[in-house]
C-alpha cells in the first residue's frame, strides 16, 4: 500500500466508527482486537487495529489508557471528486447524520459544489465535485 492513509485513534469507539464508515463509503472492513494481538494494555475486545479499504481507506484503533484520541482542529479530510456527484452527496448526508454540518454542500461561485461536515465521531470532512 502506498499513499497517505489516515490512522485514527478513538476513545473506545473504533469498532463503531469503522463500521459506520463502511456503511457510508462501502469497502472491506477488517477488525482485530487487543486480545487477538495479545495486548494487555486495554480491554481484550478493544480494537488494536482496524482497516477500511475501498474508495476511502482508513485505519483506526482504540487508544490505550493514557494515549491521546482523535481531536481535529484546523484540518479536515478532503474527498473532492472521489466519487460521482450523487455518491458524494449521499456521503455528505450520511456523515451529517448524528454529526454537524459546518458548511452546507452547495454550488459555489466558481461553479463547483462543496461543503464541510463533522461526523458523529468528531472527524471533519470536505466533500465536493466539479460542475
Automatic annotation (TrEMBL):
Domain Glyoxalase/fosfomycin resistance/dioxygenase as annotated: residue spans: 10-125
Signal peptide positions (record): none
Stretches assigned to coiled coil: none
CDD domains xrefs: PhnB_like
InterPro entries: Glyas_Bleomycin-R_OHBP_Dase, Glyas_Fos-R_dOase_dom, PhnB-like
Cross-referenced SUPFAM superfamilies: Glyoxalase/Bleomycin resistance protein/Dihydroxybiphenyl dioxygenase
Superkingdom of the organism of origin: Bacteria
PANTHER family: PROTEIN YJDN, PROTEIN YJDN-RELATED
Protein name: VOC family protein
Organism listed in the record: Microbacterium schleiferi
Source organism phylogeny: Bacteria, Bacillati, Actinomycetota, Actinomycetes, Micrococcales
